[in-house]
Design goal:
about 290 residues, Cyclophilin, 8-stranded antiparallel sheet, 5-stranded antiparallel sheet, 6 helices, globular
Length: about 290
């Protein structure tokens, strides 16, 4: 039902804007009003410089508050500067954040409790857009893809709520850990491919690359790589001089513009079924320029 309503909104938006060849996905975005673009708070924007260029990462404290705060704290210490990606598997992920480069190191801070899922009612920005073959409801929190249990599960759980969790799709960042589910510390990984089956609800998703995916894909492969790619510098945008600070805005997933965009790209059917939510990249604007 939710997917059908979302699809109906998409069709209505397309009809209102006018059909025809001019209604390309890019045209839909260019005609979008400013209010459908949600600014990423500078405190939640991680600017990571690699040798090939910069990655801009939207962090989501509503999905993983303790983990985002850990990333902020270590970034402000300069902990990640010069630290290499020590385990990089093509089609899977790139893991970094270990100053020893062995996969065994971390920071002096205490390990973190896992934040594998959140109550859906506590994530105010979530708006379901449909379903796919792995989750009863899928959508986005900012640019991060998420899945939830069926709303009807609320009747069968003690806390009268259903779970929402981040999906391990390309560009998503998650926290590495040992066998103990509460052993995350400083190491993290960024996804190259879709690995929802083995990682979802077992590792903590805390953000997604919203600009610089090409630079992400240029991280050298290997376990360890022959020439490991270092993080040249990592910064929280809020700490940068205002004149240098990137301005990032994410298209609101509850907007008619996003519904029309998905419909026009063929990502969502008229019945609201998403063939693969991992194939959807939420459009963003960086310094007023649309990236999609």
């Amino acid at each position: 039902m939710i997917g059908q309503l979302f699809a109906a909104a998409a069709l209505a938006a397309l009809a209102q804007q006018g059909a025809g060849a001019a209604q390309t996905p890019q045209a839909i975005l260019e005609r979008a009003p400013d209010e459908v673009w949600e600014p990423v708070a500078p405190e939640n924007l991680l600017v990571m410089d690699l040798p090939s260029g910069t990655m801009l990462i939207e962090m989501r404290p509503d999905l993983a508050p303790a983990h985002v705060e850990r990333i902020r704290e270590l970034t402000r210490q300069g902990f990640y500067d010069g630290v290499a990606f020590h385990r990089v598997i093509d089609g899977f992920m790139a893991q970094g954040g270990d100053p020893t480069g062995t996969g065994q190191g971390g920071s002096d801070l205490p390990d973190l409790q896992g934040e594998f899922a959140q109550p859906m009612s506590g994530v105010a920005t979530f708006s379901p857009i449909g379903r796919d073959n792995r989750a009863a409801q899928v959508g986005f929190v900012g640019a991060v893809p998420v899945g939830t249990q069926p709303p009807t599960m609320r009747e069968f759980v003690a806390q009268d709520d259903v779970a929402l969790w981040g999906l391990h799709c390309p560009g998503v960042l998650s926290m590495a850990r040992a066998n103990d589910p509460n052993s995350a510390n400083s190491q993290f990984f960024v996804m190259f491919g879709d690995n929802r089956t083995s990682l979802d609800q077992r590792y903590t998703v805390w953000g997604r690359v919203v600009e610089g995916q090409r630079n992400m894909r240029r991280i050298n492969r290997g376990e360890p790589p022959e020439r490991p790619t270092p993080i040249v510098r990592a910064r929280i945008a809020a700490d940068m001089p205002e004149a240098e600070r990137p301005k990032v805005e994410v298209l609101r997933s509850d907007s008619e513009t996003f519904a029309a965009y998905l419909q026009r790209t063929g990502a969502i059917s008229r019945t609201g079924y998403l063939d693969d939510v991992c194939n959807v990249t939420v459009p963003v604007r960086v310094n007023e320029e649309i990236q999609s």
